[in-house]
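User: quick one, fold this
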Amino acid sequence: MAAIWPMYSKMQMIGSVLLALTYPGVGGGSASVRGLVYEADRQTVMLPLTMMVVSSAVNALVVIPKTVNIMWKLHVEIARDGKAGGKTGLQAQEDTIKPESVLDRKALQKEAPKSPEVKAMTNKFLAFHGVSFALNMVTLASGIYYAMRIAEKSL
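Assistant:
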């Protein structure tokens, strides 16, 4: 995650900006950025493109770096607790998980005791990860809406 998602979110942001800069200007409006503010296209073009650029920029520049930072701190804290024996994440849990409890999440949580600091960091990580997911979904939904409107106008 630490290597792939930051690059993915930056490419998503760059793609959204390029999409806005290359607006074809269908329906009598101007092309490129001038066409985005064309009166008839404000709701169908400017709004989804703005949502795409803003949500992908917030994700790439704020949320993903914070999520990765929390993830690394969480790995360090788990290793520091000594419960992991120098291992982190799933590597540490593999030693304590019984095969019959793999499918039972509650049993897995009982078998992997955590310090209050690790629990707090895990909750913080999950919160930021959820926000990142939501921003990705906003970008995706806006892109699909924009594509549908452009296809509708070009027919």
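User: anything notable?
Assistant: The mean pLDDT is 78.
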